[in-house]
Fold this protein.
Amino acid sequence: MIKRHLVAAALATPALGLLPAGAQVEPIKVGVLHSLSGTMAISETTLRDVMLMLIEEQNRKGGVLGRPLEAVVVDPASDWPLFAELSRELIEGQGVSVVFGCWTSVSRKAVLPVFEELNSILFYPVQYEGQESQRNVFYTGAAPNQQAIPAVDYLMNEEGVERWYLAGTDYVYPRTTNQILERYLLDAGVAPEDIIINYTPFSHSDWQTIVAEIAAFGGTGRKTAVVSTINGDANVPFYNELAAQGISAEDIPVVAFSVGEEELAGIDTGPLVGHLAAWNYFMSIDTPENEEFIATWHEFIGDPNRVTNDPMEAHYIGFNMWVKAVEAAGTTDTDAVIAAMHGVAVPNLTGGLSSMGVNHHITKPVFIGEIQADGQFEVVWETPGLVLGDEWSDHLPESAPLISNWRAPMECGNFNTETNTCGGSQY
Amino acid sequence: MLLRLLVLLAALCAPVLSHAQNLEELIQRLPDGGFGERAQVVTEIGRLGDPRGAYVLETLLEGELHQRNADGLMMRVTGRRGSEQGFDALTAEPLGPVAARTTTPVRVNNALRRTIRTSMGVLTLRHPDPARRAAAAEAAFRTPDAEQLEPLTEALAGETDPAIRRALAQARAVTLLLTDAPLAERLAAVDIIAERRARTVVAALTPYRAAPEPELAEKVAETIAAAERRLAFWGAAQNVWFGLSLGSVLLLAAVGLAITFGVMGVINLAHGELIMLGAYTTFFVQQTIRTHAPELFDWSLLIAAPLAFVVVGAVGVAIERGVVRHLYGRALETLLATWGISLILQQAVRMIFGPTNREVGNPSWMSGSFAFGEMTVTWARFNIVIFSLAVFVGLLLLLRYTRFGLTMRAVTQNRAMAANMGVRTGWVDAMTFGLGAGIAGLAGVALSQIDNVSPNLGQSYIIDSFLVVVFGGAGNLWGTLAAAFSLGVINKFIEPWTGAVLAKIVILIFVILFIQKRPRGLFPQRGRAAEA
């Protein structure tokens, strides 16, 4: 950690040379709150690396408001309460102006009270279950209408799936997403006996029973698919067991929402070819912006085999939006930046323009990709345009009437359009 | 006369010419349109019967079919990124290296792959390679097409291999059901299909439950019911098998602890990390093999096992000599000290190998599965069960028939008397701890095949290991065996009803209640030495 500070300070020093002589320049501190060890390290370590790269690139351009950026990196070690402790340490102890962090929804839920109490800003880059819109959080990851629903539509329409096995890790994101998906499937006419929902603990490694159940469920002759919200390194034994029991993607495809290029980098992808993932970005998408980003990334990290993935693009978008908002507001003060953020638009890496809505969600394209033998994804379907994140699901009765608008004068994250009241702060 | 001859010749040549033209024409249509249009083209290629079509379809299936941007030529592109080679898609003639982005790949998705396999099946029914013919028969069974009835009947007539004959007969039977052949033939077809594995029987026959002919519908219902009864029986057997394989994992993890805790009375909280070290030894061996001798990969586990035993055993001896020896009789201090060692080991591994998971591959004899009745048994789990039993038997033989085993038992039963008989108790303690650690290393080698190799691997198994040892009775290896397998089987029988999370909770509550009744476990040690 000390080494990182030295690295960041060393990076900031050349930027000081660009400033008028004699100016006292205090760096702007940017917090990075990602697990570098534990079950989520497989996914989150690369996000810390991309943040360091983005900060270095920005310092090369002269920093923000003439001040250099300094990264403050902490390791919450996949321990959810530790996320809350360390975010307090970052904001109060270190004085960061903004934090880029979290992956699992349980870690995000743990830090919400801290960010609200200390009035700081969190950029959350990962796809999640929705049902939330906090004033101090900007959600650059996908809401269910930007990932889960289009994936289910693809399976229903293009693959003709009739039976659905929803497998998830046991915490808030899979539970809420499956609630939404179950309602969506039932409303689409799927019979209740054609849906099975199953939860497993983090790091679960004995998938024999569950895979046998999937095989039995899918063996009736009607097309079956698995919708997987399994998180972390439990994915590896799951796919291995599927392959070992001889279930191929052509028989029972698995569409995963938490498996990207980074998770595939550490495993033998032979048995996974043909399985699907739904994201708003794939490393294999061929645009000049993406090519440049990948080249910069490989140069920064010094390893041409490292991959890029959707949460990295989300940080790229979020970081550029933050820079733009700070420069528009002229200060890093939280309230000013939040006000300036609404409507900010920056280019994304797939050839479009991503803009921040007043509900603190952004517009994103949706891609469905198939896993290839080299660990990359081949896009098999995409939305014709950009989709704005809808945090309050229209498929659940309790959230259908809710909207979020953080622009003055409404300034409410869960305004009920039926009763015309604001629900107020809730985690 | 000559004119008529020429016209006749032209008429004879025309089908051949249009044959070749059709495949080239079809292959040019592949890049156009979406997956649906591509599927139609693929089906037409299959129906053409042109043998070159099989090569084209295989190329497409592998995702290697590309179209050259410059002139639209269809070609096959293979090789690693940066050094791709091109071949003509129809003639397989080599076309030299292919520069990046000069070709566009023809995209394939799962639905299209299924169509390709079906079409390939038709084209490869008469292939000289028996494996290809078997695959073709299997593909024809899974996606029956009424148009395939004739080629299947012809292939069946000419087939000599009995296994492939059976597969072809079943494929023909399921295709027959699609047509409106005479009722007697269709009833016979149902009987032929009934010979297959129960799950595929149910899948193939379910659409015919509501057949218009009452005899057929009744026969189908009967056959499906019989298949489902078989499935229910084998489903229970499969749960027993899953329980045994989980039990074997628990046994491997716990038997090392049974020795240190049971025999020496030492609470070793670093036991999980010793398992983790065994897994990392396997990773290290595989890395070395991958870089220096890739052809030895299938032997990697056989090399890693004795190495892990020695390495982790040495670590165990070091722990005993360095720390545990000074804390004999002080259980709480031992607990704290070994917990500290576990943290040190975790962090050391994190620093040397990094905090993220490491890839440990399965050798070919640990991959895949075989069918046993209606069950699917994976080789990895099967070999681990055999391995754990072998380790257990080896340990029993060691304890019973070797001098070291004798001195170990002597020291356990009565330390003072054993010392008076000339046994070096200090040395025996160190070796016993080392033995327990070495077996933990072996467990790590096995677990690396089915679980993630990360610095936290030990944490997942330490609780379960103690659970097994306490439940089975400290100091008794047979108790450990019984406890491991019974806990495994109980867990796997509960899991289908309650899910994985609740199953674990139920097991814990069960063990807590059991310990209230029998505090010394299933098979406690008896005698004066044990009471002391």
Observations:
- The two ends of chain A are 31 Å apart (CA to CA).
- The domain at 2-143+286-365 of chain A is CATH 3.40.50.2300 (Rossmann fold).
- Chain A touches chain B through 53 residues (CB under 8 Å).
